[in-house]
Every structure is written in structure tokens, then in C-alpha cells.
Amino acid sequence: MELSESVQRGLRSLAEPSTFDQSSYGVLVDVSFRSLLSAKAEPGVLDQPELKQIDQILLKQSHTAATTFILEAVKHNADKSAISSCLEELAFSAERIEIFYSTHQKHKKELERLLASIGRCPPRINDASWRLQYHVKNDQVDKVNEPFYLISLNTENEGSEEDINFTCTVEQLQDLVGKLKDAAKSVEKASQM
Question: Per the database record, which ranges form the COMM domain (predicted)?
């Protein structure tokens, strides 16, 4: 795993026993994993009572470095030896490496699922259907006399089908068709390169 200089600096601070004692180290590692997995706002790294005595900027840098390292380790499917050797290069003690690795193992499957859910392909359109409707009047005005289209797109994403329904005016439909034609031309050009 290649880590940027700022990540290495943050991890070296985290490895320093004079900055992070054993208790605060464990709390920071745990909070780093939980912050990646939590969808709702939980108490952050700055709200932990065990970490109040540590400089706020250093704490943020170490937290950012730890979360970056966690994501890189999961992304590369790093085993214990890869994680250990990387952390040893950054002056981590064997005990701190073990704490990190055991926490990593505890959350590894959840993090893999999280990373796998990022960047999925958009749904593929299998079919499109439309129906012309006509607004005669609405609640605010007695006479509207305006056509609109009901569009239904049958899409598929990873084996599951879903219908996407929306309405649009004639102008909006013309704009959509123009954009789809532009997109098709762009794809065709890209495939010829």
C-alpha cells in the first residue's frame, strides 16, 4: 500500500506513545472504524472524553490518517502481514499493531460491503413506454389546455427490475431527447477511439 506523506505523518503521530497513550490509541482506532461504518451522526473523534487532552489538530490529522489507512487496507484486501509491515515501518509497536488488526478483523466484512456499494453502475434501461395526457384545468386556473407525457422506464440493476415513472411537458421531452442523442453520439465517439 502506498500512503501519502500526510497520511504517514498522521500515522506516525498515532504510533507515538507520548502523544497517544494505550487507552487513547484504542479509542481513536475504534472511533475511526465506527465513523466509516456509521450512517448517522455519532459522537465524533473530538467528542470522546478520552481524547480531550490531545491537541485538536493533531487528533484530526491522526483520525484522517487512520481512516485513510483503514480504507486502503480493505481496498487492497491486506492480510495481517501486509498491515503489520506497513505499520511497523511507521514505528507502531507490536501491541498497537495487534489492537489495530483485531479491530480491523472485527469490521472487515462491513467495510468490504461499504466499499463494494460505492460506484455502482447506474441502472440499465430495458424498455420505455409513454402516454400522452392533456391538462384541461387545475386547482389554480380554470383552463390550462396543455399536453404532457407520462413516461415509464423499465430499468434493471444487478438483476432487480424497477420502473421509473415521471411526467414532462413537450419542451421537457424535446430537451430530454436532445440530451439522449448527444449522449449517444459521445458514447459512439468514445468507442471509436
Answer: 124-191
